[in-house]
Amino acid sequence: IYVLDTLPAEVNMSTFNIEFTSHNMMNSFYKDAAGRNVVKFNFPDINLKDSSHHGECTGAVIFSINTFPGLANGVTIKNRAGIYFDVNPVVMTNETVNTIGCWPAGIAHLSPGTPSFYPNPADDFLTIETGTGNYETCAIYNSLGENVLSTSIASQNTTVSVKQLPAGVYYGKLTGTKGVSNFKFVKR
User: Fold this and answer.
1) What is the three-class DSSP state of 5?
2) pLDDT tens-place string over residues 150-186
3) Which residues does 88 contact at the CB level (< 8 Å), separation at least 6?
4) How far is CA 10 from CA 28, 75, 165, 180, in A?
5) CA 32 to CA 76: how far, in whole Å?
6) Counting beta carbons within 10 angstroms of the beta carbon of residue 43, is it exposed (0 to 12), middle (13 to 18) or buried (19 or more)?
């Protein structure tokens, strides 16, 4: 099984970093016929069983990569990858879309109470900065949309233990007087 990901021109290959892989995996880079950067994730030891073995036929890789500096606000970066196995046709992932926006130089937050989350990726703890009294609750969901963790936001800086969560991508939702704010983070 291998995954091919043709990376957008706006990302800097020198910042590529593997954050998580569920199985033994080797990656390599090359340029396609159009000169675009392609990363290949090769999983040599995964053998697919038929669909009756649900849960035994899954794998994952999470990587991070930065954009080149100086991209204009509003630039859209799209990405999707192809999964290749056996003689079956390629399975294409959902397309991700990221739109560039930036903080004004020298300003820590765009507006008072705009939440921030760190570190991302997180290992054991996730710190949520919200501003005083702006949000009261935080719910964290897995990639299936299941609520896996809920907590109160007690102060301007709240530290949440994510140690018990399996590695993967998670989505958070803050709710309070500022309305609703959503975020995404990676658990290593």
Assistant:
1) strand
2) 999 877 888 999 999 998 888 888 888 878 887 888 8
3) none
4) 19, 9, 32, 30
5) 22
6) buried
